[in-house]
Amino acid sequence: MTSLEVLTVGRVGVDLYPEQSGVPLAQVSTFAKSLGGTATNVAVAAARLGRRAGVLTKVGPDGFGTYVREALEGFGVSSEYVGTSPDLLTPVVFCELNPPADPPLLFYRLPTAPDLTIGEDDVPWSLVRDVPLLWVTGTGVSAEPSRGSQRMMLASRARNGHTVLDLDYRPMFWPDVETARTEISWMLDHVTVAVGNRTECEIAVGTSDPDEAASRLLEHGISLALVKKGAEGVLVATPDGRWTVEPNPVDVVCGLGAGDAFGGSLAHGLLSGWDPVKIARHANAAGAIVASRLACADAMPDQEEIEELL
Question: pTM score > 0.90 for this model?
């Protein structure tokens, strides 16, 4: 793939979604397979909006790893930087659509996930420094060697272009809240944009109050903070002002992937040079569309679908 506009770094997996909604996992009889993982989904969402996107991650030497590469290419996302951890398995994630709006997840990522083994030799350093938009995640610093590699990436990039941190907090990946806060806080000093929900903001900056969280995020020197407030919309904050973008009401089928659709649209808006409010409105609509669908990557909307909702 020719010069990328978006490079995301981090989590990949194969999502298995119940085809029966509103029942416990024990009562599910059939599942549908989909590409998943925050960094991976964001790249797919950006590609769906016409961006040249790639993902830096790793899989296992198994059939699911083959599936990941083939699915990425099918979505128009470069798999050039998908490595292989020879002794680990590609992660599988089961979701329980009970409740559909906030489905519990069951991660199979032990003893560790391949995407947490990204080392210095796996990183395309010139691309990391020069790509117009680099996307990193909180999960990416939950374990070594990925933690050290992601730190080196941010230090090497030195806030060049758009450098986005998806707070992406999953408690099962961390030993405790204090460690998560320390590591994510360090990254805030090296990015230009931060995005997360109230819980993720509380982990990162110690408060779930959207206004206070936005203020604390901006204190790290970032230029744009987006605090997702669920049914109350999105708080958009810059050093010059703040605004609340209203939500798009939809019938929720599955809340998973909505944040990643938001992320891909955010990347597209930043690269398009849109103002912060337009970026948030567009991203909020993208997230709402995915919440009204079952899958993650397969559900990412195109420009026409987003404009229709808006």
Answer: yes
